[in-house]
Model the fold of this input.
Amino acid sequence: MLIAIYIPEDIFTRVLFAWNALGAAFGPLLIVKVISKSVDGKYAFAAIATGFSLSVLLSLLPSAPGDYLERLIPFSLAFVIAWLGRR
Done:
């Protein structure tokens, strides 16, 4: 919320960031749940927190907004965490 208020950006950049953060938080968990039907709760929370927090941190880097690493790193790490937590 503080990022949305205090960082001056155009609306397209903010919407892109929001979709990126939501996708990195919930996308990997959704994919793993479709494949294996169950993920341990601790791993699910860790995957969501990792995907979202890395999206926020990487978007604050000066060269990152719109960069492919800003999208791949949070999604990939969250996917690995969710995959390790499958039952």
In short: Residues 16-84 form one domain. The longest helix spans residues 11-36.
